[in-house]
Structures are given as structure tokens and as C-alpha cells.
Input
Amino acid sequence: MAFKIIFTWWNKQTFGTFLKTLFFGKYVGSDELGNKYYKSKKDERWVVYSGNIEATKISSDWYLWIHHTIDKIPDEKITKFKWQKNHLENQTGTKNSYVSTKIRKNVIKKKYETWK
Output
């Protein structure tokens, strides 16, 4: 485990982030995906991802907080409307990615003719 923390940046956090979190970080909260958010006395804000590091794992509320747009810490207890969807990370490159129906059916109509 220690080997992963020291030498791999794609596994949750780097060794530097680990030390910064340990000595200067104050735990602020976490989101529904398990990401943990921290703040320093100098008002520096950062996130320690759960699992693989993927920037799109941050929900819009936490994104606003981490970029100093809002100072209020997001609350999970806020009720959402029925039409609001839960946050998902970017699905590009996965089996859940969007593919147009025209591409699926191989029915791409050319708007031009190729030269002969």
C-alpha cells in the first residue's frame, strides 16, 4: 500500500498530497461518490478521490466550492427535484457512452459525392 502511495499518482493521491492532507488539511466533507474534501488555514481547497482520479467525479455543488465560487459547504440533505438526475462521471470510452443511432445502424448519409 505504501508503495502505491509513494510512486503512483493515479491511485487516489500522491505522496505530497498525502502529507499536505495529514499536516495541513481540515476535513470538510464528502460527496455521494466517496470523494473527500479538505481545506487548509490559507483557504486552499482540494479533493482526495475515491478510487481512480477522474475530475468529472466532482458534482457541480462541490465544483463550485473547490473553485472558490461559493463558500457554503454543499449539503447532501438538500432535496432535489424529480427532474434532476444524479451526478455521473464522464462516460466517454466506456460501454455506457453515447453513440448516435445513425452510427449504430451504419446509415450515415453522405452530403457529398466522392471524386472519381
Observations:
- The first strand starts at residue 26 and ends at 30.
